[in-house]
Design a protein that fits this description.
D-Maltodextrin-Binding Protein, domain 2; six-stranded mixed beta sheet; binds adenosine-5'-triphosphate; 8 helices; five-stranded mixed beta sheet; binds zinc ion; single chain; about 280 residues
Length: about 280
């Protein structure tokens, strides 16, 4: 019995999907030009497919699980379950208009032509806002549509915004924040579910490690209490005596989000020799 996972064959999600599997200790032979590949040390078979097709294949049990963008999952509306956000492939689906035009709110789009590869999501957005507009579905290079007179606005994926800029457009409104997610078929059997749980356990450990840093610092003993109060730690910080009298070494784990703020407070409280190291895996 193997678990079949579908990942993008080539494109923005391909490398990070393989990297995540690798960080989960799963070795896959390079299969860029192949349809599928097997893991050598985990009962996993990897199918390389177009990202847009992955929800359909997972619904149809051709693959048991898949890594694909939320944008694709919500656009395709297939019967699959989103199990876990994967932390890569971050982008947003945004409405963009010509740079010189003014956009106060979605009312701008009334009666306009919107070019997009995401007709389902755009229609849903317009319906929520109670706006009538014309949707032109095109499959690629959406950003050139206003320039060639095909549309008044577009709705497309954006990350840095440089593509919009180069085409004389500006981002007006975000309709969806997206990242890569793990989706699963709704009818997995017990063995498949167990394999998925094993994989998920590893994915979660990798994700947690990425969001956290291991911190080591030296503290004068009279400041220990204050310094410890600033540190969360997995249970509580580890405190070890230094070889010199009156000093201790403090070890802890810090979340990326609160990292800089806490480092500054630690310094102000008298911490010295602060070392910050990446964590490879984190199991809590
Ligand atoms: P495929 O041949 O697999 O259909 P594609 O051309 O649709 O490839 P890519 O451009 O590789 O796809 O994008 C794949 C996914 O990467 C998108 O569906 C989205 O989830 C994510 N992504 C992240 N940032 C961006 C971005 N700036 N533009 C487009 N997609 C992005
Ligand atoms: Zn695609």
């Amino acid at each position: 019995m193997v678990l079949k996972v579908a990942i993008q064959k080539a494109g923005r999600l391909h490398e990070d999907s393989l990297k995540l599997l690798k960080e989960c200790g799963i070795e896959i032979s390079n299969g860029v030009n192949k349809l599928k590949s097997e893991a050598s040390n985990f009962p996993l078979e990897v199918y390389f497919l177009r990202d847009d097709d992955i929800p359909q294949y997972v619904e149809d049990s051709v693959a048991d699980i898949g890594f694909t963008g939320e944008n694709v999952v919500y656009e395709k509306k297939k019967k699959v379950e989103v199990v876990e956000k994967l932390g890569f492939g971050k982008c947003r689906l945004s409405v963009a208009i010509r740079r010189h035009e003014e956009y106060k709110d979605a009312g701008f789009l009334k009666g306009k032509r919107i070019a997009t590869s995401y007709p389902v999501l755009v229609r849903q957005f317009l319906a929520e806002k109670n706006i009538d507009a014309e949707i032109h579905e095109i499959s690629g290079s959406v950003e050139i549509a206003p320039g060639i007179g095909l549309a008044d606005a577009i709705c497309d994926l954006v990350s840095s915004g440089s593509t919009l800029f180069m085409n004389g457009l500006k981002e007006a409104e975000t309709i969806l924040h997206s990242q890569a997610v793990l989706i699963k078929n709704q009818n997995l059997d017990v063995t498949q579910r167990q394999l998925l749980d094993t994989l998920l356990f590893r994915i979660q450990a990798v994700k947690k490690a990425k969001n956290n840093k291991y911190i080591l610092l030296n503290a004068p003993n009279e400041k220990l209490e204050e310094i410890i109060s600033l540190l969360p730690g997995m249970k509580s910080p580890t405190v070890l005596p230094l070889a010199v009298d009156g000093w201790s070494s403090v070890h802890s784990v810090l979340n990326e989000n609160e990292f800089w703020e806490i480092i500054e407070k630690l310094k102000a409280a008298g911490a010295q020799g602060i070392l910050v190291v990446p964590i490879e895996k984190m199991i809590v």
